[in-house]
Amino acid sequence: MIPKKSEKIIRNLFKKHPIIMTRKITLLSLDGGGIRGIISCIILKYIEEQLQQHDQPEAKLGDYFDLIAGTSTGGLITALLLCPDEHQKAKFSVTEALQLYTEKGASIFDVSFWDKLLNPFGLFKEKIDDTPLEQELARVFGSLELRHLIKPCLITAYDISARKATFFTSHNAQNPIRNFRVTDVCRATAAAPSYFEPAQVVSLSGEQFTLIDGGVYANNPALCAYAEARKIPFSKVLNHPDKPDYPTANDMIVVSVGTGTVLKSYAFDDFKNAGKVEWITPLIDILLSSNVETVNYQMQKMYESLGNENTQHYFRLMPELLKASSEMDDTSPENIQNLIQDGLTFVRKNQAQLDRIVQKLLDNR
């Protein structure tokens, strides 16, 4: 039993220095992969539906994460999830994002008969006309600025003029030099070499950049997102005093979502005398896949070093491509359905893990 004098001292101490229960920072990372972003949407749709069932019927995933990062197709999903409504809450559900992919994917990635004939496999110029993509981005986002996204974000691109990585971050975009139209951000992160021509975008301060898809260095942006989160004063940026500033790995829950494992094998006999032309396609495939695997390895090892409790706060969700094509621009009706089915198969086989993610998001509200 605590003496009354000591009890009074403790009460006065708590009045002067109250204990604040801090929440963890929730971080969502979304890989690149073109039309395979459908798989990511299927997985995220399950998580969002469970949040609606157990928390709020109108819940949207963008309201449950403190930072969302994306590369290429993951960057487009990031912008959709963080697009604001009139109340500065998430405007789009994952279902609406999925609908955009399934309904507009074919027109965005369309290659005409004559282009296929005159420019086979994109050998002589970019494979896909960027006009439908730009028109769709303008329809969805209009004049929305990066600084108006509802939460911190990190969307990757690469500056081929300055030869350096470019990170679009909404929490730094109050400065016009770092602020862009969201349509330009999405166009830049989607500019996959040989698929779309580079994006020429202009900041709100008037500076011009020539950018390509950030997948050339961060097809899995989870580690970039972690590094960015380390330097953010979340309690101020989110106006949420329970959120830790400049969080460490111990303070984060990380959910990293892939667009399907690509394990196409290459035989020695096929490449023992191969030159530059023969290596172009497989090299791109290998570089993208190896980056995804390497980042996952680094994140796993980092969280394994934190002890049993915090090891459980890193989730890597990477489905297998069982029926779907690994091609980033295969928008045939059959492949769209196969992507959906592969995503649903992953959800069914990994429901327990997805439910743990949902519970952590709910506990952290």
TrEMBL record:
Matches recorded under InterPro entries: Acyl_Trfase/lysoPLipase, PNPLA_dom
Residue span, PNPLA domain: 28-226
Tagged with keyword Hydrolase: yes
Motif GXGXXG, residue numbers: 32-37
Alphabetized UniProt keyword annotations: Hydrolase, Lipid degradation, Lipid metabolism
Hydrolase among keywords: yes
Example GO molecular function: phospholipase activity
Active-site residues per Swiss-Prot or TrEMBL entry: 72 (nucleophile), 213 (proton acceptor)
Positions occupied by motif DGA/G: 213-215
One record GO biological process: lipid catabolic process
Motif segment (GXSXG): 70-74
PROSITE patterns: PNPLA (PS51635)
PANTHER family referenced in this protein's UniProt entry, alphabetically: XYLOSE ISOMERASE
Family statement drawn from the similarity comment of this UniProt entry: Belongs to the patatin family.
Name of this chain's protein: Patatin-like phospholipase/acyl hydrolase
Native source organism of the sequence: Flavobacterium fontis
Lineage: Bacteria, Pseudomonadati, Bacteroidota, Flavobacteriia, Flavobacteriales
